[in-house]
Design brief:
The protein has 434 residues and is α+β, with helices and mostly antiparallel strands. It folds into two domains: 37-257, Roll (Thiol Ester Dehydrase, Chain A); 260-421, Roll (Thiol Ester Dehydrase, Chain A). It contains ten helices and twelve strands. The protein has helices spanning 2-13, 47-55, 64-71, 90-93, 105-111, 120-138, 231-252, 261-271, 307-326, 404-418, and strands at 95-99, 150-161, 172-181, 185-196, 199-213, 280-282, 287-293, 330-340, 349-360, 363-373, 381-392, 398-400. A ten-stranded antiparallel sheet has the order 1-3-4-5-2-8-11-10-9-7. A hairpin with a 3-residue loop joins strand 3 and strand 4 (185-196). The protein starts with a helix and ends in a 16-residue tail after the last helix. Mean pLDDT is 79; it is low at 1-44 and 422-431.
Length: 434
């Protein structure tokens, strides 16, 4: 089923007619008829400008209160039930976008690492913007100039890397569409490709979950239903239902319930022995921390901090943690289970804490915990937990917990590592750096 779904996604790439541009530096333009899948860029527009246009948000911070007040008038366009909304097809939300790294040196600078590779943190920002834009295409209201919906990222379910290297000197193409719809939530499938010769080759597959809220971003809002039109689309929709069930089951069962009590007790007692085996490191010695001041520059269209910015900062700290721990350059293999628990307000202090929680051979599993504090309050609130799987250039030490809490993080890290769907051995040049 997974291969059939991926095959369908690639065939769907050939059907996209409307090319829009998410993310910083992603540009909009008509397709070049001489080279299928490659776009000729004309009068490029950043996607965040496009998203501001869709929701009527102001580009000036000083006008943000007025702009949000005006959105209150859009409540009348919200559906009272999902039955009152016209169904949409998967191809209705399908869009392709181009990141012209090969032809725009100034843009390339934003994505360039010192090792002459592409910054994966920037790619995370672009995927987040693309997911939001895809959902607005699915829920487009032709009678309204401005959308009454506030669409935000709820979860990064999975990002899997493919076996292709990424060069900062070749164009990148993104594609995405809605693959499953509930009452107020949507699953978005996205792919990224890079140009090799005359062909765009797969780089990654991503699954995001987005939620729709009312015009003031205060309560849930109904979204257009989705009608599969082929066996391949029905399989994608079925996978979306299974993903929803898996997420609900995970929320209902804490990690201790996934392990037999005798196994869990034995592991914890073993960890508490406080005898460090050879070629091992205590978990408490694998931490890095950072602090970010959340300036208005990093706000989203609803004047909260942009989720892609949070992912980029968390990823870069995780990469540094894996690099420090392993003693060599790490390469990202997978990202999964990033849940946005609470929005981050502009002006907040963002505390990020990164820790290696599981290792095996060349692999490093890193968990990043994000919490915020306002300038007026001293209390901290968790906003996100991020999970990243890296591969190091050489074999890394084992990591061992000392406490019960660290033991739980270890078991959870092992679960995330085991969920990685990539191959067991991957060349380092297949991956990306921060």
């Amino acid at each position: 089923p997974r291969l059939a779904a991926l095959s369908f996604l690639r065939r769907l790439c050939a059907l996209g007619k409307g090319q829009l541009t998410p993310g910083r530096g992603l540009t909009q333009g008509p397709q070049n008829p001489k080279k299928q899948g490659i776009f000729h860029i004309q009068e490029g527009k950043h996607v965040r400008d496009k998203l501001r246009e869709i929701v009527g948000a102001s580009t000036n911070w000083r006008d943000h209160v007025k702009a949000m007040e005006e959105r209150k008038l859009l409540h009348s366009f919200l559906a009272k039930s999902q039955d009152g909304l016209p169904p949409r097809r998967m191809k209705d939300s399908y869009i392709e976008v181009l990141l012209p790294l090969g032809s725009e040196p100034e843009l390339r600078e934003k994505y360039l690492t010192v090792q002459n590779t592409v910054r994966f943190g920037r790619i995370l920002e672009d995927l987040d913007s693309l997911g939001v834009l895809v959902c607005y295409m699915h829920n487009k209201i032709h009678s309204a100039k401005t959308s009454p919906l506030s669409i935000v990222t709820a979860l990064v379910d999975k990002i899997d890397m493919c076996k292709k290297s990424l060069s900062p000197e070749q164009d990148i193409k993104f594609s995405g569409h809605v693959s499953w719809v509930g009452k107020t939530s949507m699953e978005v499938k996205m792919q990224m490709f890079q140009l090799h010769g005359d062909e765009f080759c797969p780089v990654l597959d991503a699954t995001f979950v987005m939620v729709a809220r009312d015009s003031e971003n205060k309560g849930p809002a109904f979204v257009n239903p989705l009608i599969p039109e082929s066996p391949e689309e029905e399989e994608l929709f079925r996978q979306g239902e299974l993903n929803k069930g898996r997420r609900i089951a995970f929320q209902l069962h804490i990690v201790t319930e996934k392990w037999p009590p005798n196994v869990l007790s034995t592991l914890i007692q073993y960890f508490r022995s406080r005898v460090l085996p050879p070629n091992a490191v205590w978990m408490e010695n694998s931490k890095l921390k950072s602090l970010e001041i959340c300036h208005p520059q990093e706000r989203n269209i609803f004047n909260r901090i942009f989720g892609g910015f949070l992912m980029r900062k968390a990823y870069e700290l995780a990469w540094a943690t894996a690099c420090s721990f392993g003693g060599s350059r790490p390469f990202v293999v997978a990202v999964d289970d990033i849940m946005f628990q609470k929005p981050v307000e502009v002006g907040s202090l963002l505390f990020l804490s990164s820790q290696v929680c599981f290792t095996q051979n060349n692999y490093i599993q890193v968990r990043v915990h994000s919490e915020v504090a306002s300038l007026q309050e001293k209390t901290h609130t968790t906003t996100n937990v991020f999970h990243f799987t890296f591969m190091s250039e050489k074999e890394v030490p084992l990591v061992f917990p000392k406490t019960y809490g660290e033991s739980m993080l270890y078991l959870d890290g092992q679960r995330h590592f085991n969920s990685m769907s990539g191959p067991a051995t991957l060349r380092k040049d297949y991956f990306l750096e921060p």
